[in-house]
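Need residues for this backbone.
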């Protein structure tokens, strides 16, 4: 594999050219190396084109990202919010968001992902702000 420039991330092709031994020496597990290789392969063969992502709707971005082994809906939601700046994403699978939502709204129990989805509807089209408010709710001590 060609060396990676100091401070630069490896290219997808460099990831594909990295041996199992090189990954092991770097402290990357076999499973994570497999995930990295699948992501790199998706990029090399064009199934995952990050330059195209801003033009796709949220559902298509989620479909393409979750098509990579090791990347799930949470990863897709984080990409939509933090890299594409999408304003209406609610990461219902994020435990911190669910716990924070339950705390902020004085719920007896933490909502499940399925329960949280409709609870976010009143915040459309700005549900991406909810994770921040939910995290703030967790940093405020409960009233006695």
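Answer:
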């Amino acid at each position: 594999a060609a060396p990676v420039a100091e401070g630069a991330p490896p290219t997808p092709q460099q990831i594909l050219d990295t041996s199992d031994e090189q990954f092991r020496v770097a402290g990357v597990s076999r499973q994570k190396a497999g995930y990295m290789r699948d992501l790199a392969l998706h990029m090399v063969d064009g199934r995952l084109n990050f330059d195209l992502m801003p033009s796709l709707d949220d559902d298509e971005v989620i479909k393409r990202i979750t098509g990579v082994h090791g990347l799930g809906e949470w990863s897709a939601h984080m990409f939509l919010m933090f890299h594409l700046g999408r304003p209406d994403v609610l990461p219902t699978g994020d435990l911190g968001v669910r716990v924070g939502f339950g705390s902020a709204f004085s719920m007896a129990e933490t909502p499940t992902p399925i329960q949280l989805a409709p609870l976010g509807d009143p915040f459309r089209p700005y549900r991406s702000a909810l994770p921040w408010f939910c995290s703030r709710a967790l940093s405020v001590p409960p009233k006695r």
